[in-house]
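Continuing from the previous page...

OK, I double-checked the sequence for MAP1B protein against my notes and this is the correct one:
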Amino acid sequence: ISEGPGNTKVAKSTAVPPGPPVYLDLVYIPNHSNSKNVDVEFFKRVRSSYYVVSGNDAAAEEPSRAVLDSLLEGKAQWETNMQVTLIPTHDSEVMREWYQETHEKQQDLNIMVLASSSTVVMQDESFPACKIEL
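Thanks. Re-ran it with the corrected sequence; updated structure tokens here:
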């Protein structure tokens, strides 16, 4: 946060400060993939083989289309074209539209969206699941 004209405080737009990249195997995109915390700089800096995208609340804009677009923009700036797998935790309208509208760019950037066709049943509850081998 910095002081703006008239001593009003102005929030900076980047959630992650610029710096060298960090490489990880698996990253959970923070705060239900809300764009208040994740931007292009996040994906330029936090490079992962797998990103988990949670959120299934259209009213709260989760997952955020801006975050999904930031992944494409951030990954386009990586020096290598390593495989990235996006793992959505819910089948949301935002995810489906983004997938269809950006599918060609995803392929160019070597991004795969993992759709789960498995179900885990525990006690009286069942939910979709996927297996990841690192």
